[in-house]
Structures are given as C-alpha cells and as structure tokens.
Amino acid sequence: MKRFAFKLEKILTLRLNRERETEVELGRAVGALSALENRIKRVAEEKVLAAGNRFDKTHGAGDIRSYENYILRLDKTRDALLTAAAKAELEVEKARGVYLEASRDRKIIDRLKERREREYRAFTQREEIKVIDDIAGGSAARKRIAGL
C-alpha cells in the first residue's frame, strides 16, 4: 500500500512557520514591556533612595534642592516610562491577537490532517482485512479441491 500523503502539507508548513514568526514577535513585544517594567521599578527604587537621603543631616540647602530636582526628574522619567509601557502593552495585545489567529489557522489544518490520516488508516485496515480474508478463503477452497 502507498504511504499516507496529506495534500495540504505545504500549507500546513507555511502556517506553522507563520505561527512561529508571530510567536517570536509576541516574545519581542513581551520582552520590551518587561524591560520597561523593570526600568520603572529601578526608577522607583532610585526615588525612594533619593527621598531617604534628601534630608540627611550632613546635607545643606543646596544638596536638598539638588535631591528635589533629581526626584522631579525621576518622576518625569517614570511618567515617560509609564506612557511607553502603556503603548508596549497595546503592542503585546496586538501581537498576541496575531499569534492566536496564526495558531488557530495552523490548528485547523493540523486537525484536518489528523482526520484524513485516521480515515486513511481505517481504509488501509479494511483493505488489509479483505486481502487476508481472500487469502484465508482461498486456502480453504484449495484444500477442498485437493481433497476431492
């Protein structure tokens, strides 16, 4: 018997490649968002340190003013990072949607392939049973003819 051949194998391969590409893009978007979130945390930690050191007894009025300016700059940096993070979250959601669509498209063809393969296996099994029955029936007939 001939081997199982899925006629849409090339399409399945293309969809699998597309799914992998969209998965990589999703990973990049998630990585970018994660980097922004880490930077936001570092800025917050820097602000806490600066706020704690601002009123140290060894600092004069000029140092306190410098810390105030530094804290203001950290706040502006945090705000810019939060804006960038919001945009990055939108990109992640967009990339996730594209990935899910590509995955769904691939799974459709994959399920079709599995169904066709099951049908092929059932067909070949029925054909093999017919051949075996023919062989078994033929040997019984030969024995009857030889016995006459």
- The assigned structural class equals mainly alpha
Summarize the amount of helix as a percent range: over 70%
Cα(first) to Cα(last) distance is 37 Å
Figure out the total of helices. 2
Question: What percent strand?
Answer: under 5%
What is the molecular shape?
Answer: rod-shaped
Features of this protein?
single chain; 148 residues; mainly alpha; 90% helix; rod-shaped
Structure characterization notes:
The chain is mainly alpha-helical. It has a domain at 9-111. Helices cover 90% and strands 0% of the residues. The protein has 2 helices and no strands. The longest helix has 87 residues, at 61-147. The radius of gyration is 35 Å and the shape is rod-shaped. The model has no long low-confidence stretch (mean pLDDT 90).
Write the layout of secondary structure elements.
Elements: H1 9-54, H2 61-147
Helix pairs in contact: 1-2
Question: Can you summarize this structure?
Answer:
With 148 residues, this protein is mainly α. It has helices spanning 9-54, 61-147. The protein contains 2 helices and no strands.
